[in-house]
Input
Amino acid sequence: MAEFSAGEEGKNRKILEIKNLRTHFHTKAGPLKAVDGLSYHVYKGESVGVVGESGCGKSISAMSVLRLIPNPPGEIVSGEILFNGQDLLKLTEQEMREIRGNRIAMIFQEPSASLNPVLTVRRQLSETLELHRGLDKKQSLEESIRLLKQVGIPDAERRVHDYPFQFSGGMQQRIMIAMGLSCKPELLIADEPTTSLDVTIQAQLMELIDDLRRTSGISVIIITHNLGLVARYVDRVNVMYTGRLVESCSTQQLFDGPAHPYTSALLASVPRLDSPRKKSMRVIKGLPPDLTRLPSGCSFHPRCESAMDICRKEIPPLEHIAGDHYCACFFDHGKYL
Amino acid sequence: MDAVEKEAKKRNYAVNMLVRLVKEKPLGAAGAVVLLVLLLVGVFANVLAPYGYNDMDLSARLSPSSPAHILGTDNLGRDLLSRIIYGARISMIVGFSVALIGTALAAVLGIISGYFGGAVDFVIQRFVDGMMCLPSLIVVLTVVAITGPGLLPIILVLGVEGGVGGRVRVVRGAVIAIKRNLYVEASRSIGATSLRTMAEHILPNVMAPVIVMFTTSLGSAIITEATLSFIGLGIPPPEPSWGGMLSLSGRSFMLIAPWMAFWPGLCLCVAVYGVNVLGDALRDLLDPRLEGGSGSYKIKKMIGGGFGGGIFGRRRRQKPENT
Amino acid sequence: MENERILDVENMSKFFPIASGGGAFRRKTADLRAVDGISFHIMKGETLGIVGESGCGKTTTGRCVLRLYDNIKGTVSFEGTDLTKLGAEQARRARREMQMIFQDPMASLDPRMTVGKIIGEPFRAHGEPERKDEIAELFRMVELDPNMAGRYPHEFSGGQRQRIGIARALALRPKFIVCDEPVSALDVSVQAQIIALLEGLREELGLTYLFIAHDLSVVRHISDRVAVMYLGKIVEITRSDELYSNPLHPYTLALLSAVPIPNPRLDRQRRRVMLSGDVPSPVNLPRGCRFNPRCPKRASGLCSEVEPELKPLSPGSDHWVACHHA
Output
């Protein structure tokens, strides 16, 4: 495994690059384009956010990376997912298994549903360690305890023998993180990792993930709808709407001056602790569209306040506007031309 | 495609179910046809039967099938076809009444027991326990021995015996699951009485298991009635019950007139088999987890990325690969 | 009129027995002290927010106020009537005036009823005729098309379902509504729509809300006053602006600092208070101040010995805190 450990060679090396990914689902009402031409990349040691409302394809794109899309009804129609330069979509299922959990780990929203309720934490942790890292029973127990300590579970020596239900929701998510880290992955995908948890527990866990990233140089993709989490824990943001990227930029750029009308509306529609209390929120009209019946042109145009004629006819491409800032909107193309 | 789906939505729930039954469960649909035919035969028995069920033609005793008697005659010269047709009427009367009484009892007791819980639940469940530890056939035999055989005692004893038993448990379980839904509490917060909540929210939501229960108890009631008549404690002769026709006379003349036992036996088998496959098909169709047809629900869940089991179940299944 | 208290809660407690054994052999072994002696009031037309983490008793508080439970200790007076003294049938009638909006709009709507029937349920429950025009008016009040009355809940999106839940709560023109996490299950852009709708209805119909949520930014936005709960107790209660600009209880401080602000530069400048550990179980409460095992301040031995009382900062102040060191 030595060749995968963090080397100094690539601080600016792209560990993951998604190119023009299309993941569709076949439904009675026709193809449902959950992800439709998505491209983004993650540098080594970086934390990238994927933001959007439910149904925007953020979770599906992450599951596509691990090829966890059930087929049928789902299908990765086209695109490339380059992990360290290797296209994951071209690998066999056998090779993919080597990657999953081993080099790319994923943690989900609902920890209680992701842990096997009839096995002790030790069994679940050591299974991975013995399988992927070839440790023997004694070593795997020691390593399990070390991992639990690393994710901040008190009294790890004793609690490693407990069952998942004996832990609180926050502790279960810590165990999931420990399992995700057990094989020293290069990339951790966290799909709404704290949505079902309380704010103080959420803060603890996000700090934990952030610390791990800083100390071990692992790259992190955080999928969330919470813009506050993005502001605090993410270096670069990708904003998704109906399966496409509408804006991609550094976190500071996003909050300083979002370019896409959807992004700015999203930012304006959350109540914030730092704005005057009675300031009325701007409300985005309407609902995200049905993915099987997308509007023509830019899919956001029926809800957009600056929609023009061209928006109804053509799909705006993702264009470079400044520095590391990309946006898919005709309105802004005009502004920056 | 779109218009077709919208049209389908507008159609009545029952019609929709029927379409799905034929499309997805052809065997179940065949069972439904069998039941429907039996029902019609039972209702129009006096029109359909060529002879009365007790009309004896002593000159044509034990005759095999002939143009005059298509299925032959019995040892008293009665037309077998007519007796089977009238027998269908008895089977249907007994079957439906027993299933109705039994299911209604089980539903009412189960809903009360599950909804109120506590002491009410305790009393009802211990009573059900008591009933369940008595061998049912013995209970029925004892009661019939006291009241004497007849249509009404059979219906009552089978109905009550079937209703106060395991089926109460099935309904109670379903009710306890439904009761946890927020809309039940919402109904209380609006100010609805318990009775209204049970009628408006609990009952419609337990209808699926209750309907399945109805069909299965229909099948078992037909069989039990035949059994009782077979041992002479069911419908007294000369009323033509299929079980009775199989019994004494059927057996005694087995070798010289096999058709006397064959035809009623065949009818019994087909009827019960049909009802049971219908019940199985309904169980699958009414399962709310499968509602809305193949997979569309699951896709919605995935895309929504939201809460709940569907997607996580799938993820867990993927688990062995990545651990 | 304006300065009238619509709801007055005095020393209210609700314990749930933890029992072992079954049926006739059930024995109470302990109490889960979900709500443990809290007092607050709500003025007419005011919105009181309750925040806290899961298990702090905020949802139980909402349900006690509607008297959805029996065996509530203390008094809950709604417009002068003590609800805890009412029998089940009287309490049911009293619920005409007070309604509830639930967190999960899908679970709170019966999947087998059309939304028209769902919105008409309050009329049926109180033996009133279901008038078509009245139901259509309710649809319009929550900005839905009355022609959709014949559809089923699963045909609607989350935000629309929550609108249906709101219409049902408004049907009998109540004076007071308990909103139990009404927007937590919704998408960000839809959250804003529902909050705006709730605010509009409050102005239009002169409603009073008890707004329960765990999202501090949402509560701050909609509430006039906010109560912070921890393990069945109110630890701090005051005006919204005051609470967020001058939080005094260490728990309030920690809660606030756990919420990231959607602005990286500002967020980095904020003081961060991290809490360690989980919320203790409401069955085995810690001795002294309930917060003391997790408290970053824990200034004195007093904290682990004596439970602090909720009292005003200075006599007459509307800022009440339960901390020995506030």
